[in-house]
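Two quick folds needed for the group meeting slides. Do the first one here.
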Amino acid sequence: MPHVLQRTGEFASPSAALAAVRPDAIFLRAPASAELPYAPDGFAYSYGAALARIEALRAVYAATGYGRGACVALLMENRPEFFWHWLALNALGVAIMPINPDLRADDLAYQLSVAEPDLAVALPDTHALIAKASGDMRIIAPGEAPPRCRAKVTRQSAERHDPCALLFTSGTTAKPKCCVLSNDYFLRIAHWYVTQGGAAAMGENETVLTPLPMFHMNALGCTVVGMLLTGGTVVPLDRFHARRWWRTVKDSGATVIHYLGVMPAILLQLEKDDAETTHGVRFGFGAGVDPRHQENFERRFGFPLIEAWAMTETGAGAVTSTAGGPRHVGQRCIGRAAPDMDYRIVDDEGADVPRGTAGELLVRQKGSDPRRGFFTEYLKDAAATGEAWDGGWFHTGDVVSEGADHSLFFVDRKKNIVRRSGENIAVIEVEGVLANLDGIAGVAVAPVPDETRGEEVFALIVPRDPPRDARAAAETIARACAERLAYFKVPAHIAFVDAIPITATQKLQRGAIKALAAAAVGAPGTIDLRAFKATLRQREQSA
């Protein structure tokens, strides 16, 4: 089955054997209660049926010359077709570039220019977006035959350290970086995931339900490859739908659910549903639950939330989890480091801080290969890769503290990142769009706490002329941003100010700006655009 698993020795393909011995075991499933627009009656694909589809596609891609050295972009959301194409291409050594369907054409154009895929396989209603982003991109629908591969192909087989996926992640610069993730990367993060033990112990017949997108490493690596390693079932939803969540969870037979920090907050606001306590979930796995919500959630819904920490860059090379030790519920605990993870907590000068003191988390693997399990590189950005590994340690940009029992506690982000509903948003990217709008003389963007989304985007704007109607002006700015940015990057709060804090060298004082923004939320003069931002999302979906 999934050739992504067919490497060497310890990672020999258990799922290939399952396809032969237990062909009727379910690989992918979604119940009718999920109300998927493309599968109103739900679906279920066994390992045997999945293998047949993957092998058929592998043969088609092989016949048209695809292999190691080629890259194919995929925009099929979390639909079954995504998995068939991903695993068929992976069998030949082809790297995939999963596309976020919420990207605007400018965002996508940049990503395509970095990854340079030879082909895009995409849902028909997204072809116009891709064509606008790249006029010469070859695009086919999932059921169409691929054109002849144009890339220089060295072989038509996959090896352990070949690139498997190219995933874009936000950094401190204006543009996201492209992380090259190998087969080894995915196998290691999946192996870690299914062997955490403790409160997250897994058997051979797990059903993992995820609303997370397949352009994130969590869904690709932990959920999908994890279940391929154990022969479990994946329930890939299109996204999180609160009103039908518990019915979908129950009907799917889920034993594990994946969550983002925003989800517990929303589910706690719903009226009681019989399905919320008659499901079979043993634990939830995710990150960023609000400390005020965790205990109430676990008491009401009857299972623990296992908080974990990792980055796209770190994979299993550096990962923490509360599964096997004290969870310190309600304290932003991210658990203990994996046994083979080495870490330091340092101050701004790079010196180790005393235990209990907050500092930046630096990580690496123990042993002779400190980068084992990490991303391979930032594609076409050797300087950024080197900077991230300065001094032989990967600099996470996350600020944590360590407790007496060696548990780690998340404090804040050193980098200028807004973490909204699981999406990383670079403030510099939003600032760049705002600064180029008419009527804006100066701008600074900062993350601010949000009870529902975890964090939201706050923009301090110096107008060229004071607006007569602040709300109307703010909504005009938001609409203009929505034409250039994905909806989730649009400011949720705008305050018009006379000046923005800067240093003597004319650089933005990020700490002062963040404090100013936090104090301004809900204050007179600040325009709350969260409801308006939701209408932008609705218009985007109906367009």
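Then this one, please, same format:
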Amino acid sequence: MSSQYFSFETVGKFSANDIAYAKRENGLENFYSFHPDFDHLKKALKARENHPVDRDLLTDEIMRQYKPLTTDPDIFERIQKLRNKNSYTIITAHQPNLLTGPLYFIYKCLSAIKISEKLMADQEGIFVQPILVLGGEDHDFEELNHLSLFGKKVMWEDHQGGAVGRYSIESLQPVLEEVYQILGESDNARLLIEKIKGSFRDQVSYGTAMQRFVHSLIGHLGILVISMDNPAFKQKMIPVFRDDLMNHTSYEIVREVQTQFTRAGFDEQAYVRPINIFYFDQNARWRIEEENGRYFTPEGNKSWTKEEILDEIDNHPERFSPNVILRPLYQEIIFPNLAYVGGGGEISYWLERKAQFQAMDVFYPMLIRRDSFQLLSEKDLKTLHQWNFTLEDLLKPEHMIIDQYLRIHGRDEISLSDEIRQLEDLEESIPNKAEVIDHALVPGIGEQFEIFTNDLLGVEKRLKRSEKQNHDRNLIRLKRIIEKLFPNHGLQERSDNFMSWYILNGEGFFRMLLEHSDPFDTRMKTLVI
């Protein structure tokens, strides 16, 4: 296996914000606390000591979530270590996309694992636990109800309403059967199908099934998959919920930071509202608004006085859900976290949170840009080399790649004009010889040469047609390789599901990626496997 790295700027598919953070450009320093490198991660470790969390609550709730998932004593030992004050976490988070959705879901998890391993190896006496927060409280079903597998889009079309993590999985079974058909019957496919069937059994919620599935895939690499739709965790959010309703602190601070962010030349991120919490039950998640001292959901389902809504928050915080503005606070209040690992878009909206965290006296973690991988098969690389192409060549726009192929292979026209000219010379000399012997033979010789010429012109036409077909076939193959690397002219990691590569490479696929993971090296890593 070989690898080659490219800067985000060179690839041309990353946002300006993403490139700026990767390049550590001036203008962003005021928006984060720790420079994103390994030395500063150790500084974050020291600073985190001043922000304790309820470790017993954390450990007990993770134990409760994991008892139905596994009997592995090593996992429970890891969980128990979180009770100790010298234990920390590295967090990434994502919605429970259908069977993990795009590849970067997996890349985020592996990045968190790699950082945790590296920090533990470097710092004696500490324990660092990688965490995936599975955001099952989100209600954006259309964002996560599909996946792309070998170029085929698979969709779950059952909008049940409310938090997606609470959805029933009954209607998902035909979708899974479609996935099984696509995967086929190879040994790796059968192993993967067993994992899916084992995760999506019984009448569990979709969030629980996805927690099982991710654990079955990469739990053995050390990561814990945690649901934050948790009544005990929500108790810790009561002061934040009350503040958001009464004082609108996050609204005032984040709105001002966003103004500074745009003045610094960066795109504003998540929309901030005066109230950034939802009210939800089993089948709905409603935004809360306030007017003239009355709190209500715009759909008209709920209405409260100030006293009523504060009383419900105090007694039933599990009925309230933070939006994107408060969600980062939530996880940092619960976990002894050092760093958040995310993609370019996530890093951008986290960069708008520093002042908010300070106002709430919550630790603001280091922000680490996850790994970006690009995967290419050995077969496709061999084909590119046969055509005198490099991986750098494929970073160009598609029309330039096609032009390059034609310049190398397709501009020389196949012509038999030289051979036909030789026939013309013979057509002049042979009749002269025939004239001496038998004048009557001369007209026949001319007719014969006319037949020869027409035959050669026919051969030339067939050669040209065959050459064109060869170029057309090769151009189709070239376009397919480009499409594999940049589906729909975007990044592979934002489209393809991991299963396309897992069934070709088996259980070693994740370890291979982990081996090449290095989130502090902010370049796209092209791996030939």
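Slide caption for protein two: DSSP finds 23 helices and 16 strands in the chain.
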